[in-house]
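2 proteins. here.
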Amino acid sequence: MAVISAFIGAKGLGFNLLLALNQLNIGLALEAGLCISLIAILLDKMSLAWANKQVDYFGNLNFFQRNKNSLFFGLIMIVGIALAYFGSIYFKEYNYLFEVPHNKGISTADFWNKGVDWIFDTFFVYIKAFNTWLIVEVLQPMRALYLRMPAIATIVLVVGAGYLIGGTRSALVVCGLTLFIALSPWWDRALVTTYMATFGVIVSCIIGFTVGTLCFQNKHSTKFMLNVCDIFQTFPSFVYLIPVMMLFGITDTSVLIAVIVYATIPATRYTIEGLRSVPSGLHDAATMSGVTKFQRLFKIEFPLAFPHMMLGLNQTIVFALFMVIIGAFIGTEDLGQYILKALSDKKGAGIGLTLGICVAFIGLIFDNLIRTWVDKRKKHLGID
């Protein structure tokens, strides 16, 4: 949110990122995004280490053992201050040991810009062909299907799904959320938002479930993939728009590829975590029973990991909706575009709030259906 706030004037790395987005400068955007991601990872690792720190309250410790961290910290501070002082003597123009000046340092922007240019020049024909095929053969028919379905048919379909999954209570909740959107002036734009999110979620889940299942098989690949998920999740979301926009232009393809990259993170993470949560005793029992690796995966691990994986699906939907709205900055025709217009209008607070509620209700509809389904599955498995 500190980065997103740059759109309403906040300074910092988010502001630099916004400038890079406006200039289509992938190199500067990646540098700023990586700095933001490293700050997030640093804070995450430090807070996690602090939370897991064990204190021996009963040990017979001497003064140094009790206060060694504070003493080391104080020593480092003294050494740092001394180095900064001597740096003022060594560096004549800028004292880099005291303060790194703005826009002074090693930049990799040209490398990334040349890399994107090389990809575009080398694979232009294939990129254009793929873009045309995806828009004409997949996205336009899917969009038309969503928009041409009668509103009452859509409501009945959603409410019926709620009733089949969770009974009358779930059907009423889903009906109320859907009717709010249907009775607003934004029903067609909400359908466009849902179509884009649906496509992104389907592809993200296919990739995430597959990658998560493959990485789960090895301890090192599991740790590596979770670290990759950490980096991608903390990377500012609208950075993903810049390279795809340069390759595919201002089209739904650009937004959807960014959605897929961003929304694949929770699908992958929760698949790994779900499979890791299966008790090792069941693995041993399955092996002793003579089942194959695929039988164990599909008959034991996937059913028990199902609640975790569905939570991943839930988060994937949230990530996809968020990224679809961010995609409005490159000209999509969904609710995000009208939210962006409301932000620039002094009298647009009411419209912006209504649009935000519509987006939230789309997410809550799926959330209600998935959580109800997961709760029923947990009771069936005896792990609720």
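next one coming up
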Amino acid sequence: MMRPAQLGTTFSQLQCKYLGIDYREAYRQIATLGFDIVRLCAYWNEIEPQEGEYHFEALDWLLEATRKDSLAVVLAIGAKAPRWPEFHFPAWIEERHNTTQTSAPLDSDAGLAERTLTFIARVVEHARTAPNIRYWQVENEALNRLEVARRRYLSRAFVAREVAAVRSLAIDEQAVMLTNSVSMLPIDAGHDRVAFESSLAMADVVGLNVYTKVPLGPRVYLQPLPLYWCKLSSWRQKAAEQGKALWIAEAQAEPWEWNRLTATERLEYPSTSPTAAVALVTELAQRGFESVLLWGCEYWYWHRKQGSDTWWQAVTRLVKG
């Protein structure tokens, strides 16, 4: 077992709601695991449920809690944030704008683009003085067109506008992060490369989302070929040559099963297990990735509340190294 130099997780109050657990209680327990960094999510539908009415209670609570726990924070902002359904539009936005189109980027609707920029600016202005915010993640997998987001996407030009807006408002020493998915299908290699290179050009930190067993059907799973690992290695080298950091923003530590939002009936599934998750993080560390964020902390805590500590203990051992 090998621990990366910086180990963290993504915490989602939305995922806690899906699982029927209190996000404050869940966060307090997850914070005891001893992570170095946590990614939080500024969900548009939660923060601005009515136009111009901002509710920062949940985000403020989490920022204060992470400050007390001395956890560095990545704050994901924008229309697209971690966890399904990826684009977290308030109902009033969905009523006025086309938030489902796939034939053109969503930002081709000028009104939607401007409202997104307004929301981002409002969040940055509100939260930027939080002393533990180190990184602003602009959108999630901003330049990828994925089935999980129903093929909806944003243009590179618009993401560049978002990045510029965040840089103009952020406090000194706060960096900008962009994340990319990494396909295991060779046919997607060209798109992956373009998204990565665009992200590298715009951001200070690029995060890769690494899932190594994903469903193609009820009992069929896709797994990486050697070319996948070569791609990760070459990208790490390219980032280093440009003096930029390449992280693993999501390392699979929660099952991903066919047509399931969250698979909770068992401890282990074909897509992953506690043993497989530890092995993945160890391999990533051995391949030179110094910053890794585990995906699934709410899931581990949910199992713990059901009386099983298998996931919890595995992560605890991993954090301790």
